[in-house]
Design goal:
Helix content: over 70%
Number of domains: 2
Number of strands: 2
Strand content: under 5%
Distance between the termini: 102 Å
Number of helices: 11
Largest sheet: 2 strands, antiparallel
CATH architecture of the largest domain: Up-down Bundle
CATH superfamily of the largest domain: CDP-alcohol phosphotransferase transmembrane (TM) domain
């Protein structure tokens, strides 16, 4: 079991009384998810204003809602497909809000001067890449699952990312002139893009065999134009009668063309050929 899963399991056991209380009170899991997302957005606002320690505490505590909503749903028998969809969607909102708040914080460094000035613009770019990478990690997994592939590979799952975005800031704030926060943001961005590449490679390897099957022994794959303009493969042995018929048809057409050319070249012989073939000449027909 991974360290994050072990910590999550232990934390859920610690929160078991709270979960049981919420179940007895009939609290909806979707309400817990909504409350946690709203709290995360508030914490992101404090990040944007430069209150790093306070924002770290708010984001960290709001992550508890994301941790217990699933347990409440299972214990209360309120699990649903929409609930899973709703939770996943609001997770993306929360991630985007936290990273967006940090982007605003770095962009406003010219006002509060809490990190080295020369790192302001580069960190805004890093955070923007981190937002894109964060959304792509979720999209690649969801798209793979839509194809029937479980692409649960990669570095730093979401619980670990939330811990890195909250716990160090809650306890040490902008320690070392903000370099701890800078290092965490760079780490999250790099690992997000590594995860995207890992999932793309994983799906490519899984689908490569089905996308390019090897031909059966003794069969020669041939490409011919399909009616839609694309190419389709067919069995050469199965197409032999069609090819013979096509060749015969072409031979008949060539003989007809040769006969017409001969009529033009020698008109006097044309009537004789028509008579021999059973057709009356043009002079014998009724006028």
């Amino acid at each position: 079991m991974a360290l994050s899963e072990f910590a999550k399991s232990g934390f859920l056991r610690f929160l078991a009384p709270v979960i049981d209380l919420l179940v007895r009170r009939g609290v909806s899991p979707n309400a817990i998810t909504t409350f946690g997302t709203v709290a995360t957005i508030i914490g992101a606002g404090f990040y944007a204003r430069g209150h790093i320690m306070l924002a770290g505490w708010i984001v960290g505590l709001s992550a508890i809602c994301d941790l217990i909503d699933g347990s409440v749903a299972r214990k209360s028998g309120q699990t649903s497909v929409f609930g899973a969809f709703y939770d996943s969607t609001l997770d993306r909102v929360a991630d985007g809000a936290v990273l967006g708040g940090l982007a605003i914080f770095f962009a406003r460094n010219g006002v509060h001067h809490k990190i080295p000035d020369y790192m302001s613009t580069p960190m805004v770019a890093v955070i923007l890449l981190g937002i894109l990478g964060s959304f792509l990690t979720s999209y690649t997994r969801a798209r793979a699952e839509g194809l029937g592939i479980d692409a649960q590979v990669g570095m730093l799952p979401r619980p670990d990312r939330i811990v890195l975005l909250s716990a160090p800031q809650a306890f040490i704030g902008l320690a070392l002139n903000g370099w701890v926060l800078i290092a965490i943001c760079i780490l999250l961005t790099v690992t997000a893009w590594i995860t995207v590449v890992q999932r793309m490679v994983f799906v490519y390897r899984v689908t490569e065999a089905s996308d390019h099957p090897s031909p059966a022994p003794g069969r020669i794959p041939i490409l011919r134009p399909a009616p839609s303009g694309q190419s389709e493969a067919y069995d050469a042995r199965a197409a032999v009668p069609d090819n013979l018929a096509l060749a015969g048809d072409r031979l008949v057409r060539h003989e007809e063309v040769d006969a017409r050319l001969a009529d033009v070249a020698a008109p006097s012989d044309a009537a004789g050929r028509r008579t021999e073939s059973g057709h009356p000449s043009s002079f014998d027909r009724a006028r």
